[in-house]
Amino acid sequence: MILDAAAAEFAASGYAAATTASIYRRAGVSSGTLFHYFPTKLDLLLGVLELGRAETVRALAEIAEAAAGTDAVLAYAAHVEAELADELYPGLVRAIGDVERLEPVRAALAAETAAIDDFLARNLVRALDEDPATCAGQARAIRWLLDGAAADALAAPVPPGSLVDAVRALLDGMGVLRPRS
Question: What is the rounded CA–CA span in Å between residue 106 and residue 30?
Fold first, then answer.
């Protein structure tokens, strides 16, 4: 409840303009309750980032249970596309950008990136039956494509299906054979 309110407030106002008072009012809790769990505004943002990382890890696990190889990579691209359509996405990314150079924020973002890179690399190893080091570079290229789409989503919605199509085209360019869905 508090972290959802913090995410909404950061998305609406930006990190600098958001206040702990606006967050505890939005959450419907007292200032004492807010500060008990989150002593600073940065702690609130780090909590939002940890919640996002945990959601990403959960989504990756669900995808891994249902698919493998390039099917899993494409399923993750579809998941990212859905995330980019969330109305809070652009504002929240801008708010994070306000403080992304702070070490705790960089560490939180790096933890999520590492989980994504690992997932992509493992699934490319399955699809290609190649050296994990080679697949790590290919996984990074896919993540860069996803990150680029995420940056574009700040300015305009990503057309439905376009991110999955772009990842599919990149996989084709990598010479990866996979069934078309």
Answer: 30
Contacts 24+ apart (CB under 8 A), 82-86: 84/149, 84/150, 84/153, 84/157, 84/158, 84/163, 85/157, 85/158
Residue count (the chain): 181
Quick check: helix, strand or coil at residue 139? helix
Nearest to 21 by CA among 8, 6, 43, 42: 6
Structure tokens at 136: 């790590």
- SS3 of 17, please? coil
**88, HSE (Cβ side, Cα atoms, 13 Å):** 14
Flag whether pLDDT at 180 surpasses 80.
no
Global pTM? 0.90
Separation of alpha carbons 138 and 153, rounded Å: 23
pLDDT digits (tens, 9 = 90+) for 50-80: 999 999 999 999 999 999 999 999 999 999 9
Task: Answer left, alpha or beta for residue 133, where phi above 0 means left and psi between -120 and 50 means alpha.
Answer: alpha
**Structure confidence by residue, pLDDT tens digits, 114-169:** 999 999 999 999 998 888 888 999 999 999 999 999 999 999 999 999 999 999 99
Classified by CATH at the fold level, domain 2-173 comes out as: Tetracycline Repressor; domain 2 (1.10.357)
DSSP assigned state of 29: -
